[in-house]
């Protein structure tokens, strides 16, 4: 799902109504695996105030166990690595929920290997703060688990319905 966590440039004191709508959408589809792109960063190309806390609340909600967060895109990486505190807070969240995060580059049309690995390289400070098990899940394990299951589920659905 490619959707901002909240309305760009909300009015001061405005409730994050878009987040409330997303939460209700997620709850209505508990059997659907949802990967939320860019941890909800989008149109304004920067996190909204309290964005990491919003992600933590979503991950802690037992009714949202089917929602996963993708940390792809250099714009997301830029904010995650902006300070030692941001790196630590993000690492703490990923280490707490190691099965719920996926890494991707979101690099469009890279010209060479270096361009393709730009986002991966940007995340070096974050990767260093993750446990080895969490890092493995973030980089490969969660993708393999989710997409292998999706392939089986799609084939089963096709067999039953086509």
| Helicity range | 40-55%
The strand line-up of the biggest sheet is 1-2-3
Low-confidence stretches: none
Q: What amount of the residues lies in strands?
A: 5-15%
Rg over C-alpha atoms, rounded to the nearest angstrom: 16 Å
* Average of the residue pLDDT scores: 89
Class based on secondary structure composition and strand pairing? mainly alpha
Number of strands: 3
Specify the number of helices: 8
- Report the order of strands and helices: HEHEHHEHHHH
Query: Biggest sheet: strands, sense, closure?
Result: 3 strands, parallel
Shape: globular
Query: How far apart are the termini?
Result: 26 Å
Describe this structure in words.
By secondary structure, the protein is mainly alpha-helical. It is built from eight helices and three strands; from the N terminus they run αβαβααβαααα. It has a three-stranded parallel sheet with strand order 1-2-3.
